[in-house]
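Moderator note: this is an archived Q&A kept for reference. The question asked for a predicted structure of one protein chain; the sequence and the answer are reproduced below.
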Amino acid sequence: MTDPHDPHAPQGTDHPGTAAHADHGTYERPEGEPAGVTPTLSRKPSAIILAAGRGTRMRSDLPKVVFPVGGRPMVCAVVDACLAAGCGRVIVVVGHRQELVREALAAYPTVEFAVQDQQLGTGHAVQSAAPLLAGEAERSGNETLVLCGDGPLIRTATIDKMLRRHRSSDAAATLATAVIPDPSGYGRIVRDAKGRFAAIVEQKNCTPEQLRITEVNPSYYCFDTKELFGALRGVTRNELSGEYYLTDAPGLLLNAGERVEVIEAVPPEDVLSINTPEDLAKVDAVFRSRPAPTSVQAAAAAQARSATPAKPQGAPAKPQAALAKPQGTAAKPPGAHA
């Protein structure tokens, strides 16, 4: 029987047919290589977007990622950034009231979904997508981004910088970081004497010296797909929270002799957290103040929305009720773009 608390046990997944796989290369198994899941070598990175959490601190039962930013559920901005960066597959991890997240992304028929049945941390959430990426994880060379669905200020340019560093350094994992004036609440990026990655240390575990570090982890990751899921198998349950943390994975890779890169690429403005309706209003104002997406970015998102793959088996019926607008969201400023 599958242990529901085992982060390595397969979680529920569904995907919209073969259209989302069209950009993946074929693979001929070398003589003598053991049979199993057929590996594929992707010509484009995949993306896992974490969207299973509750919006408890938003004083609402809605999933946080469906709260509107720029006139749309905030997770849409994250999907658009991934598509504009050239991601061939976008997998959204859903959980709490997943039907609302699926409805919010109904305009993106190529988006795939993985289900996190229990809230057991970010590492467990990423592991929920493992069955969908089993082929890519069979061999090194494929790339998987891991991003948060409640970070709508993400920029395609930031993803591009992270990918370039990841590829040029042949890293197993690359983290895009930010330096902010007030790092309170964020995990700190600890570097060694040569300026290379040493650890991510959560604030509650920081020494007084580490608390003075202003370089933080805003949860922008790029992994070699095989190394990602290999590292997650080594993540243990946190004794205090009972959860499995994705932030443990880079350290495990480093300890195994793999290369882990960090690049200060996230503008401080983009790190604004959304934990209250007031925070949501600030992020909404920043988002609306930005220029509209470039024609290339808009074209990538439009192409993904226009695709019409087959409906996945077992997908829940689309809810009839529209998403409720949360209290305390910002009014649309005059002349702002949606």
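Archived answer notes: The chain is about 25% helix and 15% strand.
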